[in-house]
Amino acid sequence: MIKSLNLRIAKMGFLNTSIGKSFQILTSSDRIKLAGVVAIQLVLAILDLIGVAIVGILGALAVSGVQGQMPGDRVSFVLKLVHVTATGLCNFNLPY
DSSP code of 85? Predict the structure, then answer.
């Protein structure tokens, strides 16, 4: 399995780069560990991006609610995706 991976990488010219040469120094178990760490980093980066998007949507929703306006098109689209209606948000009054 590792040999076939090495052949495919070599065909792409990856082994001629400095990263490819550094990759060749590693043992096969270290390569697998590195692939696992890269996969975990990729998943965490995607989750981070999703979290930032959620915070942005909540911020936009809060600002439009404070101003007494309906949410914008993008926020309304996301609210429809999660099956939340925005009609009640505009008419919501805080007790003083």
Answer: -
Is the CB of residue 57 less than 8 Å from the CB of residue 78?
yes
pLDDT, residue 6, reads 63
Asked, for residue 95, whether it belongs to a domain, the answer is no
Contact 79, 85 (CB under 8 A): yes
User: CA–CA separation, 42 vs 25, rounded Å?
Assistant: 23
What domain count does the chain have?
1
Provide the mean pLDDT of the chain.
79
Amino acid code (one letter) for 44: L
Q: Which domain holds residue 57?
A: 2-90
Instruction: Evaluate the CA torsion angle 61, 67, 70, 74 in order and state its sign.
Output: negative
C-alpha separations of 1 from 4, 14, 86 in Å: 5, 18, 53
Task: Give CA angle at 52 (50, 54), nearest 5°.
Answer: 70
Task: Report pTM.
Answer: 0.62
Measured from the Cβ of residue 75, the count of other Cβ atoms closer than 10 Å reads 20
